[in-house]
Amino acid sequence: MESPFLAAQLPPISTLPISTLAVPLAAFGLVFGSFITALSYRLPRGESITAGRSHCPACGHVLSAADLVPVVSWAVHGGACRHCRAKISWRYPAIELTSAALFVGAGVLARDIVHLALLLAMTPVMLALGVIDLEHRRLPNSLVLLLAALAVAWRALSDGRYLEAAVLATLSTTLGLVLDALYRARTGRAGLGGGDVELLAIVGLALPLEVFLMTLGVAGLLGVLVGGATRLRRGEAEFAFAPEILAAFWIGLAAGGDIVNRLAAIRSG
Ligand SMILES: [Zn+2]
């Protein structure tokens, strides 16, 4: 149930002109994207996130403000370190641009200002988890726990149905473990990682049943597409599944209610 207090106090985001919001959201998205590139580099390597200034991994040169402007620094210096000319991966500007696009997308889709704020808090955590899983095939516990806490906050602000949250989290954990066991029994290889199962539980914590089911469906579909593409391109059966779960979760958070309502309208009409 929508909280009448919040609805009365806060204007729905749709009444705010997105043309006004888009530029600041894109700018914040770029800055957070830059932070995510640093976080996704340092966290899996056990380096401190706050201490120590950013430096070129090749020559160790401490980067100045001019080297750290999102996307622009990379493009101006031709995708290389200004000092030693070592190549800097295109992933860095790609992460920054993805972050900016998701921030603007959140502004377009979020139901109201409270959901927008929470979605903007969750987006960098989800993007960092996706990037780290792609590069290292693991999900740091600190980020998973942070996302779980934000998912509970989302539930509190959306419908407050904590029993449903607990049931769906338990169901999705069980489903994940059963799928993993079946896959293991058939192929002898690990299927879903423990981190993937935790993410499925977090989806259950945040989203109501219909949106939860839609999100699982989208995650499964994306998994089939990415898994199939990986097999065709590299002949590998293994691929990172967390990015697909996170992409589906983001869609579920930002627009899940709308999508489910529209599907229901199509079915009944
Ligand atoms: Zn360098």
Short overview:
This protein is mainly α.
Structure characterization notes:
This protein has 2 domains: 17-109, no CATH class; 113-269, no CATH class. It starts with a helix and ends with a helix. The protein is mostly helical. Mean pLDDT is 88; it is low at 1-13. The protein is built from 10 helices and no strands. The structure holds zinc ion. Zinc ion (ZN) is lined by residues 56, 58-59, 61, 81, 83-84, 86.
- The fraction of residues in strands falls at under 5%
Bound molecules: zinc ion
Helix content: over 70%
**Counting H and I runs of at least 4 residues, what is the number of helices?**
10
Low-confidence parts:
1-13
Tell me how many strands there are. 0
Mean pLDDT over the residues: 88
Task: Label this structure with key terms.
mainly alpha, 269 residues, binds zinc ion, 10 helices, disordered N terminus
SSE order and pairing:
Blueprint: H1 4-9, H2 18-42, H3 72-76, H4 91-109, H5 113-136, H6 141-158, H7 162-187, H8 194-206, H9 209-234, H10 242-268
Helix pairs in contact: 2-4, 2-5, 4-5, 5-6, 5-10, 6-8, 7-8, 8-9, 8-10, 9-10
Bound molecules: zinc ion.
